[in-house]
Amino acid sequence: MGEVAVPTYNATIYVGLKDRASGLSATAESVLQYLQGYVCTYGRDTPAGCVTVTSMKFVYVDGFEDGFAIGFINYPRFPSTP
C-alpha cells in the first residue's frame, strides 16, 4: 500500500461523565461503546472515521469527576475536509 498524505487538523471535545441533574456517572465502557457506534455510523463521510479517547479527571470548586478528551483527527485511512 502506498503512502497517503492528508492535511492535518484536529478538534477536541471535553466530556465529564457525571450527570448534573442526578449526580450519577456514566461508565467509561458505555462511552467507548457509544463512540464505536458513532464512528461506524458516520465515520466514512466525516472526520469521525478515527477518534482518540484520553481519560482525565476534572477538578473544580466543590468537587471532581472522571471524564474524557475526545479528539477528532484527519486520519489518512479516513481522510476528510474540515
Report on this model:
The protein is 18% helix and 34% strand. It has 82 residues and is an alpha+beta fold. The chain has one domain. It has a three-stranded antiparallel beta sheet with strand order 1-3-2, with helices on one face.
Which shape, going by the Cα principal axes?
A: elongated
Largest sheet: 3 strands, antiparallel
Mean pLDDT over the full residue set? 83
**N-to-C SSE series?**
EHEE
Number of domains: 1
**Number of continuous helical runs:** 1
Helical content (DSSP H or I, runs of 4+): 10-25%
> Would you count the extended β strands for me?
3
Strand fraction = 25-35%
Low-confidence stretches: none
Class computed from helices, strands and strand pairing: alpha+beta
Strand sequence of the main sheet, in spatial order? 1-3-2
* Global Rg: 15 Å
Compute the separation of the termini in Å: 25 Å
Q: What key phrases describe this protein's structure?
A:
82 residues; 3 strands; alpha+beta; three-stranded antiparallel sheet; 34% strand
